Amino acid sequence: MCRHYIYFICPILLIKEHIKIKVLNKKSEVLRMEIIDLTLNKGKKSTIHGNVYSITYEIQEEDYYLKLVIDYFNKRLKVVNYDGKNYRGMAQRIDFIAKENSFDKVFIKATSDDWEEFMAYGYILEGIFKYYYNGEHGYCLSKFYTSSRRDSDTIEKENEIIEKLTNFKSNNDSVKLEKDYEIKIAKKEDIPKIVKLYDEVFKTYPIPLNNMNYVNTLMENDVLFMYIEHKGQIVSAASADMDTLHKNAEITDCATNNKHRGKGLMSIIINNLEKEMIKRDIVCLYSIARSVSFGMNKVFKKQGYSYTGRLINNCNICGKFEDMNLWVKKI
């Protein structure tokens, strides 16, 4: 997942350093209070009381700029933007924050001009976000700080899935909805039913889709949700998270109720999301699918997406850290 929103669920919030934050309260539940210490700079420690998902943190030095998402829930750092040629300085600052906070993975989407520069500092190429930067490729570089995060125990099964999928040809012919099913673009009044679906489908998810305030925030920040309804209940949904600056969108948050699988519902949603993205002048579509899910990877293969890499132990989904396959399509 590549969301960049700052998100706390907390009745009490105390920060001993100036950080720009957004607080969203979830009043309807009794929450377990956490006390989290974060070190973001030498000699400066931030203490947060509450439930933290992520923090956006910007660093401006004389010869480089970094915009980081401190992804506490997934124990990783995401470099969402950078500028400058001091690669050593950037790498050392990232190392400091990752090690001080016991995060065990960092990843960055580097440009075609400088992705090789980061490899000298322990980064490896995990995937290629083709057409990501206004038609130019982005390169997903990762650095691991522990062997447990670096090593995957499901890699053989995942390789078998990708090999089997080479036999499937792309087929963009839309599947027809069965009777009593209807596809819609989500509105804010649909949020409670959307949240209910995600809460039913996922034991854990990299972002808090089981929180209505958070889903509302997504809708206000260039995220288009689409769903299929059956007899008044949302049974399948997905979203397109748009980066209008670079003309790309992530097809994400794909979920279908177990009782309604096998009907091609997700293919129908993705087809319709693609049509909406074309209207919005998006060039690149991509998705990060669970590597152990044959069905989800098959959907993207049949929709004409190209497999361009695997992100090892990328995020906490369905109760544990899992590998994610990268699928890309130019529209």
What can you see in these coordinates?
This protein is of the alpha+beta class and 331 residues long. It has 2 domains: 7-150, 3-Layer(aba) Sandwich (Aminopeptidase), CATH 3.40.630; 155-330, Gcn5-related N-acetyltransferase (GNAT) (Aminopeptidase, 3-Layer(aba) Sandwich). Helix content is 23%, strand content 40%. The chain has 8 helices and 17 strands. The chain has helices at residues 87-100, 115-119, 147-150, 155-165, 191-201, 212-219, 265-279, 294-302; strands spanning 7-9, 23-24, 35-41, 44-49, 51-60, 64-71, 76-84, 105-111, 124-133, 136-144, 181-185, 223-230, 233-243, 248-256, 284-290, 306-317, 320-330. The strands form 3 sheets. The chain has an 8-stranded mixed sheet. A 7-stranded mixed sheet has the order 11-12-13-14-15-17-16, sandwiched between helices. A hairpin with a 2-residue loop joins strand 12 and strand 13 (233-243). The radius of gyration is 20 Å and the shape is globular. Mean pLDDT is 89; it is low at 1-31.
